[in-house]
Amino acid sequence: QVQLVESGGGLVQAGGSLRLSCAASGSIFRVSAMAWYRQAPGKQRELVAGISRGGLTNYVDSVRGRFTIYKEYVKNTLYLQMRNLKPEDTAVYYCNAEVNNSWGQGTQVTVSS
Description:
Layout: E1 4-7, E2 10-13, E3 18-24, E4 34-39, E5 46-51, E6 57-59, E7 67-72, E8 77-82, E9 91-97, E10 102-103, E11 107-112
Parallel strand pairs: 2-11
Antiparallel strand pairs: 1-3, 3-8, 4-5, 4-9, 5-6, 7-8, 9-10, 9-11
């Protein structure tokens, strides 16, 4: 089972930016699509952005144009660059490896209005 460790969350004002990181324990990117999910209080976990093994990306409509998912093979790290953050982006963000459905522990993002 691959280990995933997220970091980079925090408190930011609306309109601000954050970059989330997900460090993987092995060379998971060559064998697995990856994704960022989030879960807000009282809501179901939702897919935010995904990236295939070949680098194709997809986004939920609410973040398209504001968030960018990308990966660095050398560092075995997945990123989520978030810009123009809104209060409705407040949630715990999780990294996921599709191949074995591994999850990180999550990182809290709070956007104040």
